[in-house]
Design brief:
The chain is of the alpha/beta class. It has a single domain, classed as paralog of FGE (formylglycine-generating enzyme) (Alpha-Beta Complex). Helices cover 14% and strands 18% of the residues. The chain has a four-stranded mixed beta sheet, covered by helices on one side.
């Protein structure tokens, strides 16, 4: 997890490299679309309208609320206990949730170690400022990674569970990020970012209450038999 010091345009918060072990999990093939969001939340906050476009202008709190509502609708145990701005995750629940930052990078890379999951270039696999025409695009129009996941590079930023914090070098199993913080992690870059900001290792974050037209999300679930 992270990027080597030799990777072009690498940021200091992408290291040191870590050895991570990840338990089995499911993750959405696409970012959550506006059609899916409307069906569960009965509203569409997106600035760029289109049922097959990724939903955006959703806060981190909106995303965890969506996960719980979808879980309840499908008869699953909600992953989160939400008390206003206090959110507690039950890792044993079988309901929908946000991926951890480690899960997100694992899914994005699909076994690769290159800057992008398609190699050294993102043009055929992602949307960024150089090809997006300053807007989002319907999910699934670019090439998927080797595991069949689309839009891991660009289109919209994707919220993760974790608080944004510094990496440490020790090996970890199923890390959940920093214990506390002020910003939640987002991954993947977006239509308004430069190409290098859509790399597999690129990481940053924002305040969980913010709703911006670059912010969306992708859902995950534990692989519980």
């Amino acid at each position: 997890m992270g990027s080597p010091v030799s990777e072009p345009r690498r940021a200091s918060n992408e290291g040191p490299l870590q050895q991570i072990s990840i338990s089995s999990f499911y993750i959405g093939k696409f970012p959550v679309t506006q059609a899916e969001y409307i069906e569960i939340m009965e509203k569409n906050p997106s600035g760029f309208k289109g049922v097959n476009l990724p939903v955006e202008q959703v806060s981190w709190f909106d995303a965890v609320d969506f996960c719980n509502r979808l879980s309840i609708r499908e008869g699953l145990d909600p992953a989160y206990e939400i008390d206003k701005t206090q959110v507690t995750w039950n890792p044993q629940a079988n309901g929908y949730r946000l991926p951890t930052e480690a899960e997100w990078e694992y899914a994005c890379r699909a076994g690769t170690q290159t800057p992008f999951n398609t190699g050294n270039s993102v043009t055929d696999s992602g949307w960024f400022i150089g090809n997006s025409e300053n807007k989002t695009h319907p999910v699934g129009e670019k090439l998927p990674n080797q595991w069949g996941l689309y839009d891991m590079h660009g289109n919209v930023l994707e919220w993760c569970w974790d608080w944004l914090g510094a990496y440490t070098s020790e090996a970890k199993k199923d890390p959940q990020g920093a214990l506390t913080g002020t910003m939640r992690v987002y991954r993947g870059g977006c239509w308004r970012f430069e190409a290098h900001q859509t790399r597999s290792a690129f990481r940053y974050g924002n305040y969980p209450h913010l709703r911006l037209n670059i912010l969306g999300f992708r859902i995950a679930r534990n692989a519980i038999e």
